[in-house]
Design goal:
Layout: H1 15-27, E1 39-41, H2 43-48, H3 58-73, E2 76-80, H4 86-100, H5 104-107, E3 120-122, E4 128-129, E5 132-133, E6 137-142, H6 170-196, E7 213-220, H7 228-234, E8 238-241, E9 247-252, E10 259-262, E11 268-270, E12 278-282, H8 284-289, E13 299-301, E14 308-315, E15 322-323, H9 327-332, E16 342-343, H10 344-352
Parallel strand pairs: 1-2
Antiparallel strand pairs: 2-12, 3-6, 4-5, 6-7, 7-14, 8-13, 9-12, 9-14, 10-11, 10-13, 15-16
Helix pairs in contact: 3-6, 4-6
Length: about 350
């Protein structure tokens, strides 16, 4: 890991420009011409996740093989056998829907602003992707940041999460869910570490031993446009983007198809809801760490004739960590780094402070 001091700014000031330029170029060739997204049963991984010799277990080896193929070729996969109770997963969506059906005057009580550390509620159109408003309402939550914890790097993100009073169980339910998904994400990342050729704990310690997280609670309004082509062209629900961190787990409505993933040919492939699973995808920081072996794939959301809720959880690196390609990943990709060092917190703050119209 490179030594980078925030005060002396040893990370080159044009790092982000270079990284984004390379990322745009590689997105043209990323992934494969996949037509569907694989389902991976991760029960063997859960059973052996804390065993130092987990990689030697043949059942775990099969899961690792599937993770490697999915991350190399698609950047997306479903996980089943994840151990999170279906009743809890459904209750999270139900409570989300109850909140979004409240009068606007109630929802705005927890309005997002810079004063809240960019936590809280946004009405339809206030979230922006690549300069265009997204047609969804949402609540954004982040791991809470105490004043001064990350110095000037984290000052923008300082604050506590504003939980609504109604529904009354909202706070307790969501915090329980976040804890469970943090643990599940760590386990999946142990499998991904082995898939890349590292030890199970590769992404712990300095990289994500104290992981940051982002939690979005999203409501997609009914689309009044019956022209499928127009809806897909404009990505009304949420425009095409990649995620910021390591791993995303999406809890989406079981009966509404809305999420699309782009393959190498530019086709948009539907990530149809599959009950009992989470849709998972890898983020920008894992692409950097793997030196491009794994892709953070473009995806978007299309609105439908039914109101839809989606609750994505984003598992991130340590906020103040400096990320660059891992040595063993560089060895597999010609020996040179394809990406300059990236401070995760800087990457996140740059996104957060430009994502909203307020």
């Amino acid at each position: 890991m490179a030594t980078v001091h925030f005060g002396s700014r040893q990370v080159r000031p044009d790092t982000d420009r270079i990284w984004r330029k390379k990322k745009r170029k590689e997105n043209i060739l990323m992934g494969s011409d996949f037509k569907s997204i694989p389902i991976i049963d991760i029960r063997p991984l859960l059973d052996k996740c804390n065993d130092p010799k987990m990689a030697e277990d043949p059942r775990v080896s099969e899961v690792v093989k599937q993770l490697d193929q999915a991350c190399r070729e698609i950047g997306f996969f479903y996980v089943e056998g994840h151990g999170i109770p279906d009743s809890l997963v459904k209750e999270v969506r139900d409570v989300t829907r109850k909140f979004f059906h409240l009068p606007f005057e109630e929802k705005i009580k927890i309005k997002l602003s810079p004063m809240t550390g960019y936590r809280g509620y946004q009405r339809v159109g206030e979230n922006v992707t690549k300069g265009l408003p997204d047609m969804h309402e949402a609540i954004d939550y982040y791991r809470e940041v105490e004043p001064g914890k990350y110095g000037t790097l984290g000052s923008v993100m300082e604050g506590s999460n504003p939980w609504p009073d109604n529904p009354s169980n909202f706070n307790q339910l969501m915090e329980e869910y976040i804890t469970l998904l943090t643990d599940l994400s760590r386990i999946i990342m142990r499998g991904i570490a082995v898939a890349l050729g590292g030890s199970p704990d590769t992404f712990e310690g300095e990289i994500a031993g104290d992981p940051f997280w982002v939690f979005r609670i999203i409501g997609y309004p009914v689309s009044t446009d019956t022209s499928t082509a127009d809806i897909q062209d404009y990505g009304i629900g949420c425009g095409a983007h990649t995620d910021y961190g390591l791993l995303t787990l999406v809890n989406q409505d079981d009966d509404i198809t809305a999420l699309q993933v782009r393959n190498r040919s530019g086709e948009w492939i539907w990530a149809n809801p599959i009950p009992g699973t989470f849709v998972c995808n890898i983020g920008d920081m894992l692409k950097v760490l793997s030196n491009g072996l794994y892709e953070s794939t473009l995806h978007r959301v299309v609105n439908s004739p039914k109101y839809r809720v989606s609750v994505p959880f984003f598992y991130e690196p340590n906020f103040d960590t400096v990320l660059e390609p891992l040595d063993f990943c560089k060895q597999k990709t010609g020996g040179l780094s394809k990406f300059e060092p990236v401070i995760y917190g800087e990457h996140l703050v740059r996104k957060v402070t430009t994502n909203f119209v307020m």
